[in-house]
Specification:
Elements lengths: L3 E2 L2 E2 L7 H8 L6 E2 L2 E2 L36 H16 L1 E5 L8 E4 L2 E6 L3 H11 L8 E5 H12 L3 E5 L8 E3 L21
Parallel strand pairs: 7-9
Antiparallel strand pairs: 1-2, 3-4, 5-8, 6-7, 9-10
Amino acid sequence: MSGDEEGVAARPVRRSRLAELADMTVPGPVQGPAGPVQGPAGPVQGPAVREEPAQAPQAPGPPAPAVAATPTARQCREFAVLLGEFRRTAVLLPLGADESPLVADLDGLRWLYAFSDEAALARFARARGDTARAWDYRRVLGARLLDAVVPGVGVPCGVALDVGSEGHEVLFPPVLGIVPDAVAVDVDEGERQ
């Protein structure tokens, strides 16, 4: 069919630039200055996905943190390098319809979505089944996100980086050493400054 039906030309489907980026990207390994980087407990695994028949696509939630006994000294150093890189890097903070940051709530924590680049945001949009719309975002330095935006949320909040880029998601939970002590969930009330 040529797009004409009863003499009326069909309107082309408008795709966002993010949809085109998603088509072109294939997730690669996360590289730090010394090679591939993992979190303190190894690679972060995404949440279990249940197949629900006849439902609209659901937004991917922040990845579930990998569970390990005690992180090794090497894993702690690797995570410290990753955290340092995140703090020095401008990331994309997608905005909702009301211009507030896009978030997900999971197990009593709020997670701010952040993306390392437009390709990662495009993969997230594709996973949500939401590639047709334009995605507004702000560029925010990772340090500002952790030190100013997270405390301003008003509830326990962390950052979920690159959700939708399977195997490369990273969580920065609201704990000591990542967010300010005043909003860290692992600080006793008597220890808060």
